[in-house]
C-alpha cells in the first residue's frame, strides 16, 4: 500500500469515526426536550458519555489494546454502536432511550482512542497525524449536510430522530470500512505499562500541571455547554430554521481547520499561557455575543467562527503541552487523563448544569432568558483565563521553535 493510499484510508477512517458523533451531538439535548425529558433526565443521558469515557480509557489501555487487532475492534464496536443508535432513534420513553444511549456510548467512546492508535501505528512519521486527524473535522462538517434535506424548518421529534438514523448508517459504514484498514495487531502485555496511569496522576502534584488540570476542567464544562445550549438557542431564540442550525454550527469546524494550520506559528510567538488565554476568552466572547446579539442573525452566524480559536488555541495547545511536560513513558496516560476531563467530567457537569440553568430561567410561557443563561459560561471562561494569567507558570514560555514552521 502506497503512503498516499494509506494516509487517504486513515483520513477516511477519521472522517467516518467523528461523523458518527457529529450527526447527533448538536441536536441531542433539543431532541430530548421534544420527548419531554426533564433537566435531570437529560443530565443522566449526558452522564453516559462520562461513564463511557472512564470505562473506555481503562478498557482500551488494559484490555482492548492487548486482546484485539485495532481494525477488528473498530469494526465490532461500530456494528454494535449502529444497532444501539437504531434503538435510540425509536425510543420514546426515558428508560429505553437511556439504556440504548448508554450501550452506544460504552462501545463508541473507546473507538476514539483506538482510531488514534490505528493511525499512529501505521504512519511512518507521527507528524503526519495532524493531517490524518483533520479528516475527523471534515467528517463532523459533512455529517451536518444531510439534515438540510431531512429536517423541516420547524422539525418535530419524528423528524429530528433522523439524527440517530444517519449516525447509525455512518456507524455501519465505518464497521465495514474498518475491515479494509491495515492489520494492526494487539499490543503485547509487556508493551503496556500498568503503572503509567499512577505516575501520570502523581504528576498532578506539580503546581503548573495542577493549575492546567483545573483550568481544563473549567473550560471543558464551558466547551460542552456550547453543544448543550447552542442548537436550541439558534432555533428558539435567534430564529434560524431547524434544518439549517447544524449547518450554521458546522462553520465552527471549518474555522477549526484554518486555526489548526496557524497554531504552530501562534504558539511560537505567543507562548503557552497567552495562547491558552486567547482560546478560553474566545468562549467568553462567543457567549457574550449570544447573550447580547441574539437579534442579529449575521452576527450570531459570524461568531461561530470563534470555535476554531476556542478549540485549537486551548484544547489542542493543552495536548501539545502535555506531550512536552510529561515523561515519554507516561504521555499516553497523561493525554488520556486530560481527555477524561474534556470528554468525561466536563461533559457530565455540563449535561446536568446547563439544562437545569435553562429550566430555571424559562418562564411559564416557555420563553428562556438566554441573556442570563449565557452569562454563566462566559463568566466561567473568564475565571479560567484569570487563573491561567495569575497561576500558570510553565518552565518554558513556549514550545520548541520548530513548531513555528509546522
UniProtKB/TrEMBL annotation:
It comes from Novosphingobium taihuense. This is Nucleoside transporter. The keyword Transmembrane applies. InterPro entries: MFS_dom (IPR020846), MFS_trans_sf (IPR036259), Nuc_H_symport (IPR004740), Pept_cys_AS (IPR000169). PANTHER family: BLL5896 PROTEIN, NUCLEOSIDE PERMEASE NUPG-RELATED. Pfam families: Nuc_H_symport (PF03825). It is a multi-pass membrane protein. The chain crosses the membrane at residues 7-24, 44-61, 73-95, 101-123, 135-155, 161-181, 202-222, 242-263, 275-294, 300-322, 334-354, 374-392. The keyword Transport applies.
